[in-house]
Amino acid sequence: MDQKIEKRTWTWQRIAILLIGLGAAAWLATALLRDTGGAKLNVASERLLLDTVRRGEFQEFIPVTGIALPIRNVVLAANEGGKVEERFVEDGAMVTAGQAILRLSNTDLQLNYLNQEGSIVNQINQIQNMSLLRDQQSLNLRETLLDIEYRIGLTGQRLQRNKTLQQGGAVSKVEVDEMQEDYNNLLRRKSLLLKTIQKDSLSALIQERQMENSLDLMRRNLDIAKQSLENLVVKAPIEGQLSGLNTELGESISRGVQIAQIDDLSNFKIRVRIDEFYISRVFPDQVGTFTFAGKQYTLKIKKIYPQVVGGNFEADMLFVGEFPAAIKRGQTLSVKLELSAEEQATLLARGGFYQKTAGRWVYVLNKEGNAVKKSVQLGRQNPNFYEVLSGLQPGDVVITSGYDAFGDKDVLLLK
């Protein structure tokens, strides 16, 4: 009798096909999850930089580059033009205030001085001659006055006698009247002469003042001409180091041309270049520090130049207290410019992650040793740390290296 053979539902072929299908579905699901933000990514931990969030002193500052400059410099220019006749010092020499540096010659200035000197001599002679003439005229007027006064006296006496004789009939009335008229005429002449003498004295005084004013003006012009001659010897206005002196003997120099520069090396200032991003946060008296030869020095902003050139503006900083004696002009220094005071804050080390996240999220290690994406809020920063405002607590371990290779994965499986 034939035996009925039952057909098997799960053959090994069907099981193999099912396993292959499940594997393909799992691979597809993994691929889809990897392309979404919820996927996980295996990462080699030795390639990562980690930092532990902590509380500490935070100070916002920026590193800026400064150049050491003399506390002041004075441009040495030719007050008068001329030909270089003599050079007393060499470029780079230390000079004292008033020390001669160059001697120029200028024939026109010398002739002008001699001409003005001659004009003053002539003016003085004219004043003396006019003074003599005024004195002679004054003497003549006074002599005339004395003569009139003498004649008035004699005529008055004779007039009195004749009036007495007239009463006795010895002298006629006509003769007395004529003598009275002569006497009155002498009195009128005296009155006129007195007014003439008064006006002559006032006129002489005015002329004398005018001549003195004219002479004073000429003397001042002569002093200016003399000063111009003295300016042919170029002198150092301050004590310091001479630089830029390139003139040669026989060279002609025009008036006002810069000859050299004198740097006052009694102190220095540091001129720093600051990114324009901080222009609204930089003020006078702001403090900065730098280290030189193993010692820290303090600076304070004295002057801010508002012009922005090439994305930067400049400021001059002066030393607070002593300055390094070995510092040289033009030396480059790295200055730590403080933007805030020191205060307690939650700190996270700076790293490459910021370029990817702009400080909005970070990867934080969990208890399983994996890194999980977490939203954060970062505030101020300095070259070493970010200030953590929210999202992290002291003790959290954060991946601070760059995130470019991680995409937007939510979890990193660290190996």
Secondary structure layout plus pairing:
Blueprint: H1 12-34, E1 40-43, E2 50-52, E3 54-58, E4 61-77, E5 82-87, E6 94-95, E7 100-105, H2 107-168, H3 173-230, E8 233-235, E9 240-243, E10 252-253, E11 258-275, E12 287-292, E13 295-309, E14 312-319, E15 332-338, E16 343-349, H4 353-357, E17 361-365, E18 371-375, E19 377-381, E20 385-390, E21 397-399, E22 411-414
Percent helix, as a range, is 25-40%
Give the averaged pLDDT, no decimals. Answer: 85
Largest sheet: 6 strands, antiparallel, barrel
Tally of contiguous helical segments: 4
Q: How much is the radius of gyration in Å?
A: 53 Å
Beta-strand percentage range: 25-35%
Strand arrangement in the largest pleated sheet = 4-11-14-13-12-15
Outline the low-pLDDT stretches.
32-37
Give the SSE order as H and E letters: HEEEEEEEHHEEEEEEEEEHEEEEEE
Estimate the global geometry from the Cα principal axes: rod-shaped
Structural class: alpha+beta
Spell out the key features of this protein:
4 helices; 6-stranded antiparallel beta barrel; 4-stranded mixed beta sheet; conserved putative lor/sdh protein from methanococcus maripaludis s2 fold; 36% helix; 415 residues; alpha+beta; Elongation Factor Tu (Ef-tu), domain 3
